[in-house]
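To make this tangible, this section ends with a sequence with its structure tokens:
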Amino acid sequence: MHQRRVKDRHFLGVAIDAQLTWAAADERGFRSSDLQLRDLVPDSSWVASQNSLMAVPVRGRQVAELVAPWVGTIIETHPRACLYLWRPDLLPQIRTYKDCRPDQQRLQSRKKSKRRA
């Protein structure tokens, strides 16, 4: 079903939030671009190695392979780093953006209410 959605539309490019290449030279799983990005952001833990991301790089490459025939350009993106490099003045919000997702808050509220019942 998702493949049909891609086939039926024209995309100039797609940005995927996953590592799309391997780090063969570094046993920790960091690519040179990862190390450079770690130097640019205020918290090096924002940039994880492939080894710590488990299935994310594999799934990212699967998505890239799936859409490649219908997409002009496929790039890798890092949303938190992009936000910081674009608007460093929003650092407090950027630091906590993953902690404030509404879907997680709703899920946590449901779990708490079930425990009380």
The beta strands are 11-16, 71-76. Residues 52 and 68 are 26 Å apart (CA to CA). The chain has one domain: 2-116. Residues 2-116 form one domain.
